Amino acid sequence: MAAGGPAPEPRILLWLGVLLARWVAAESEAAVVGEVHENVSLQCGNISRPRGLVTWYREDVEPVFLLSSNSSLPPAEPRFSLGNASSLHIEGLRLQDEGNYTCREVLNETQWFRVCLQVASGPYQNEVNISATGKLPNGTLYAARGTQVAFSCSSSSRPPPVVEWWFRAPDSRIEPFGNNLAASSFALLQVSQNLQGNYTCVAMNMLSSRRHEVTTELLVYYPPPSSPQCWAETSPGWTTLQLICHWDGGYPEPHLLWTEEPGGVVLGESTLGVQSLKRFQLSNGKKFKCLGSHILGTKSEASCVLQIRSPSLLSDPMKTCLVGGNVTLTCQVSDAYPSAKILWLRNLTQPKVTIESSDHYIISQHGQSSTLTIRNCSQHLDGGYYVCRAENLVGIREVDIWLIVKEPLSIGGVVGTSVSLLLLALGIISVLVFYHNPVFCRKGRNLSREEDNGDVMVLVDSEEEEEEEKEDAAVEDREEEEEHKRVALRKETVRHGHIHQVTALVNGNLEQMGNGLQALEDDLRELQSDVVQEEGGPV
Ligand SMILES: *[C@@H]1O[C@H](CO)[C@@H](O)[C@H](O)[C@H]1NC(C)=O
Ligand SMILES: *[C@@H]1O[C@H](CO)[C@@H](O)[C@H](O)[C@H]1NC(C)=O
Ligand SMILES: *[C@@H]1O[C@H](CO)[C@@H](O)[C@H](O)[C@H]1NC(C)=O
Ligand SMILES: *[C@@H]1O[C@H](CO)[C@@H](O)[C@H](O)[C@H]1NC(C)=O
Ligand SMILES: *[C@@H]1O[C@H](CO)[C@@H](O)[C@H](O)[C@H]1NC(C)=O
Ligand SMILES: *[C@@H]1O[C@H](CO)[C@@H](O)[C@H](O)[C@H]1NC(C)=O
Ligand SMILES: *[C@@H]1O[C@H](CO)[C@@H](O)[C@H](O)[C@H]1NC(C)=O
Ligand SMILES: *[C@@H]1O[C@H](CO)[C@@H](O)[C@H](O)[C@H]1NC(C)=O
Ligand SMILES: *[C@@H]1O[C@H](CO)[C@@H](O)[C@H](O)[C@H]1NC(C)=O
Ligand SMILES: *[C@@H]1O[C@H](CO)[C@@H](O)[C@H](O)[C@H]1NC(C)=O
Ligand SMILES: *[C@@H]1O[C@H](CO)[C@@H](O)[C@H](O)[C@H]1NC(C)=O
After folding, report:
1. From the alpha carbon of 324, which atom of ligand 9 is closest?
2. Structural domains of the chain, ranges and CATH numbers in brackets
């Protein structure tokens, strides 16, 4: 360069100046950091006294004139101006402004000062990306619990920024995520509930200390673990039926939709899952379906169905009670959904009167089965119709029970008498068999008075109108609606604690009766015990 053509005088001066600066610089070099678009002032040395003639140069391949305190020399660019104590003021910094600057002061002697200007830029924005998440309408991100969530953050600045992630869980302090300050991306392999919170990416320019941060809220969602449960409840005032659907354990609360099946007519949707239905909306057998949907996706099994049913009743149509005795009427409700309330009424008089528990009446209910016990039966007070009524919002059912109150009698009625005669005849036949059978004869001998047990054949005639086995409820329950004569012979043979039973049904058919007797006879042959007891009873 020095070999170039004749250089103008200022240039030679400058060249010398630069050479001079080389040794001055060692002791008085200042460093200044500015940011693009900002203003910066470069001091010409650190001297507070009045200044001499000051000229500013930019060091390039060769010094470039910028500005002089000689006002007759215009600045190289309008961005340059003289500030306090002849400092160089630069407006609207550019990246290209970075470099070495020299100021020359001419006073008693010429002095050179050098300033190193660094221009920083940014960061002004961060690119945050959180993957495998969904986005709520308000911009908040959510991830499914247990999934992998990848975070990345990038930002540009000059010089390149330091990027950090910070995490803040609700109600806790903000904490740095990981130790590596340079880590701008990381992944949570199985995101859990305690990792829900605000994630902040901070990018920092270490030269200018300028920071830029972006906070992203991440919610960790999970669906309920099991299937929805639904049931129906009657409102306290018995005015409405409440369909209730619960699908617990998810976050956020799932949406629950009640529909009418079939058809899928929508009744209502909410997070509560409660739907009230008026009586007119209910009919026997109607089905309702609750469909649960969670933001993480609707599973096909996320539903439950309930069916409302009016009650069905099961009861004996007729009961008998002896005067002064007790009788229990039973009423069994089945199929009612929701559960029915059960009432006992009498309809001897109109209108029907609800029976309350008292000394005379004892009402007890176990589940959907109710019993009414009438104590000390009296003929004119207690005989007649009783009504068992079961009611839910879907429907009402009633069943009538006819109660017969009788004087206690062992034998009564024409039918009873005929049965007695029949049994008497049977007795005679038995006696004949008794004496014709050698085995039985042996038995007959054994059945002597010396033994504790008498050889007594007990014949008890029985018929639908005679209840003598109040204590034997099982027998009693089956005896009432028989229309034809039905005589059962039950022989119990007690032998070493074992019981053999032979039952013969006699329907006025001699052949059958004969068969029955044959069975009786056969069994008797097998007898080896001392005791023979025969008993005829109703079945
Ligand atoms: C830079 O200086 C100019 C003039 O002095 C002023 O108008 C402007 O606001 C300044 N800019 C900043 C960023 O300070
Ligand atoms: C000049 O700079 C030095 C160190 O950089 C400092 O100690 C001194 O106070 C400064 N003088 C003035 C007048 O600013
Ligand atoms: C200021 O600059 C003008 C023009 O270059 C020059 O004539 C004048 O001598 C200078 N003044 C001083 C004090 O250097
Ligand atoms: C110049 O100095 C004055 C007072 O010392 C100060 O208020 C002003 O900001 C300074 N100007 C610049 C451009 O540094
Ligand atoms: C400024 O000067 C130093 C030596 O003093 C040099 O290392 C550096 O590269 C220079 N800067 C520029 C931008 O030229
Ligand atoms: C400059 O010269 C004046 C008088 O000529 C003197 O008083 C002053 O101390 C000198 N300054 C320096 C820095 O030498
Ligand atoms: C966005 O909506 C969700 C759910 O409604 C809420 O939890 C979150 O706080 C909201 N975020 C903001 C920033 O409003
Ligand atoms: C997360 O940031 C949102 C606003 O950006 C704020 O409403 C919420 O409270 C913050 N949550 C936490 C846990 O700091
Ligand atoms: C009827 O029931 C009452 C109380 O349960 C009992 O004291 C009484 O002995 C019963 N009467 C008969 C005849 O079983
Ligand atoms: C009892 O009620 C039933 C059904 O409501 C009715 O058919 C019957 O006639 C009533 N009986 C009497 C005695 O009121
Ligand atoms: C049973 O009822 C009759 C009248 O119906 C009464 O005279 C008698 O005292 C009652 N017996 C008991 C134990 O309550």
Report:
1. 13
2. 10-120 (2.60.40.10), 126-221 (2.60.40.10), 229-307 (2.60.40.10), 312-406 (2.60.40.10), 411-451+478-535 (no CATH)
pLDDT on residue 153: 92
CA-CA distances (angstroms) from residue 231 to 293, 301, 352, 382? 18, 17, 33, 41
Identify the H or E element spanning 415.
helix 414-436
Band the pLDDT of 410: cuts 50, 70, 90: low
Q: Rounded mean pLDDT of 289-315?
A: 89
Other CB atoms within 10 A of residue 225 CB: 9
The three-state (H, E, C) secondary structure of 227-268, written as one string: CCEEEEEECCCCCEEEEEEECCCCECCCEEEEEEECCCEEEE
Q: 140 C-alpha vs ligand 4 centroid, how far in Å?
A: 48
User: pLDDT at position 299, please?
Assistant: 64
pLDDT at 117 over 60: yes
The residue whose CA has the least distance to atom 6 of ligand 5 is 100
> Model's pTM, two decimal places?
0.65
- Cα(349) to ligand 11 centroid in Å equals 22
H/E run at residue 102: strand 99-106
